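Supplementary Methods S3. Input chains for the assembly prediction are listed below.
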Amino acid sequence: MEEKSNITVIIPLNGLTENDVPYFERAINSLKNMETKPDEVIITMCNCPDMNQFIEAYDFNGLNVSKIINPDANSFAKQINFAAKNVKTKYFSVLEFDDEYTKKWFSRIKEYEKHYPEVKIWLPIVVDINPDKTFLGLTNEAVWAMNFGDELGFLDEQALNNFPNFQTSGAVIETNSFVDFGGFKSNIKLTFIYELLLRLVHQDVKTMTIPKVGYIHTNFRENSLFWNYKTNKELAISPKEADFWIQTARKEYFYPYEREITVEV
Amino acid sequence: MSQQTEKINAAIQKLKSKDFKIYFFTMDSRGNPVASVNTIYTWAKYLKDAGYNPVILHEKKEYTKPDKWMGSTEYTEIEHKSADTKDVNMFPQDFLIIPEMFSNVMESTKTMPVKRIVLCQSYDYILEFLKPGEQWLNYNINECITTCESQQKYLQYLFPQVKVNIVPISIPKYFNDSDKPKKPIFAIHTRDPRNAMKIIKTFFLRFPQYRWITFRDMRGIKREDFAKGLKECCISIWDDKQSGFGTFPLEALKSKSTLIATRPTVMTDWYDEKAAVWVNDTIDIADAIGKTFSAWLEDLIPEELITTPEKYKDMYTPEAEQSAVIEFFDKLIESRIGEFEGAIKEIESQVQVQTPNNPDVINLFD
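Predicted structure tokens for the full assembly:
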């Protein structure tokens, strides 16, 4: 019998265009191909009739898929917070629909969990690629650099304060730690992932990067959140504003709840 | 019975009752780990445990015992003597083991009344101080111990008249797989320290995406700490074409650290193309590391590279080495007794034979 992963995968969706479908198929195939499969897949989505129809008809063969409609689907952070409250397993992981897991990623969690039971967040080494699949770089690997932090392989508050470039998509996160400490703060733009990690490590939530490629992340797909931050005139964030959000994350992580933020750039 | 015969008989009795000394001429490691010195102390300890009297013979009075880097004082409890002092008295029943490099010691001790044997752990040092045109037979040395067949062949090629025995060395049991998953750390061991830096710098130039990797230079670490460090490493790099046996790569294989290595000039006995990523030259190592590490990160290391090293787990064990050492010295003593008994027979028959067949042994007792 296949070993239970105790992991729920959350896929946030806020509309799917025709161009997005091949990405979505690759993401779902990566789930189907995993050695250790998630116990459940929660698709949290907008109330968009076309997409709902597409998802209803989609063949998720072999996967235990639930769909939940979230009225706040235009916010990535709110979608994850909403879905996390519906997770019944010990861990959850976020799969963006244009990304992929590697075959052994969840098997690695089972292996590392035995050796490092104190860890609550498992980060994969993320391979960042362009939409044309050219290699851009790696993320989450820095914790393995000598003298980066207090302990090789682990993320700590001071190191994270100095180096914000970490990614939670693909990470396997203990559900209770995420929910109890407040989840993502949706009023923080650009750096809500950074703020969450700062807040969790500040609360001694042990965070480790498993030194294996676990997640393939497509960067700057047209209409993606970060593509919009870069190219959409209405949503674009200037370097000055980006710096503001980094500084904001560094101030806000001491609070487990959202505080009012006035953007001044 | 002549006085000479009595002396030989007494020597035979001492040999039979293990009342003699086995001197190991040993270089001063000066507190730094040296594999050849480690072997000598290990063998001396085996012999001591078997009731023999090994003595570490060092050149100068000032000598640093290797207890710190060997991690145990039990080795240093072996008797030590300095060749500098006058309290070293060697007798015909004693043995002197001389490392291959010290042809000067072989020459200077050639008139000593002891059986001398060369211990060759690294063929690369044989010719280091040997004078052109000279050979070990010129120093009355006709027997040698080495650690593997490949070195035995080379020694027989150089010195066809010297008897070459094999006593394989061992890797301590604490060189084993880690109970935790391997870390993205690379152990590196090169004969020339400059090559380590060349490999590391080339690797970072060729693979900037891996600039977060830690290289662990495995020089000068206490052996048990060395083993602990090695078993954490996902990759081990070995660059020593002149190596005679290849202790480091075997330690890496036993520790289940994926080995990337230059092929040695003299192939070691344990060499297996499938056990490691082999390259021909130092210049090829950086690319081999990059490719192998990419495969490791993505769980794409070829199966045979994972399974082949399994076979080394039960090879070169301390038990096998210990029994080989004891067996060798037991036979050596038996053969020495035979030589002495032969000498007595010749002395007794000298009435008929004026020229003895074995004058060297008989002359020892003059």
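The longest helix of chain A spans residues 239-252. The CA atoms of residues 122 and 214 of chain A lie 10 Å apart.
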